[in-house]
Amino acid sequence: FKPEDVKVIFVLGGPGVGKGTQCAKLVKDYQFVHLSAGDLLREEQSRAGTEYGELINNFIKEGKIVPMEVTIVLLENAMKRAIDSGKRKFLIDGFPRQMDQALKFEEVVVPSQFTLFFDCDEDTMSQRLLERGKTSGRADDNPESILKRFRTFKETSMPVVNYFDGQKKVVKVDGGKTIDSVYKDVVAHIADRLK
Ligand code: UP5
Ligand code: MG
User: Fold this and answer.
1) What domains lie within the chain, and their CATH numbers?
2) In sequence order, what DSSP letters do the residues of 37-60 get, joined into one string?
3) Which of 8, 21, 43 to mutate to test the pocket of ligand 1 (most atoms within 8 A of CB)?
4) What positions does the entry give for ATP binding (predicted)?
């Protein structure tokens, strides 16, 4: 596909900040295609006999970042399928979460338009994840994994946010409020770039 035909918004923020929740609302109101890198990895992992299944599961439980060769191919394939069916606006959720991924994706796939960054304190995010963990079945919604995810986010993923911020390509929204008030802020901040 031609990069100029495609629009990509990265959606970043700590574990449990509400990336998936806010993306779902944007999809409903503005017809984006929502691609969560974590969801794509979990799908790939649960596919029987997959070469990467075991590897992915271990990385996720440890809150570590899966090698980008895996993730970028999954994202690219999902984007191609969507583009073939006439879509062109993408929310890429939970990616890139390491500098090399950011540089590689923008080089080989398409440069992002901007990054929507949700900010929130760890106590709030932790409570949300533990609550979700009662029913989510996610291998990483437990106290040990959550601490590791927070550490990876601070050490490895925040540099990505800071890098795009240095390019004046970050829109920061407070993710600590109610779902509806966070969404109101999102729409208010990026209203002119949702088309
Ligand atoms: N909730 C949401 N918003 C709320 C609000 N405003 N008020 C109260 N509650 C709110 O929300 C989390 C929970 O909180 C839900 O129960 C929700 O109802 C509630 P959600 O929208 O799911 O938050 P989200 O930010 O999407 O949280 P998620 O757990 O998905 O974030 P992570 O970034 O940790 O998970 P992700 O799936 O992106 O990645 C998982 C792992 O995959 C990573 O740790 C890593 O090991 C691996 N990975 C890679 O290796 N590479 C990648 O590129 C991507 C992932
Ligand atoms: Mg998510």
Assistant:
1) 3-188 (3.40.50.300)
2) HHHHHHHHHHSTT-TTHHHHHHHH
3) 21
4) 16-21, 132, 177
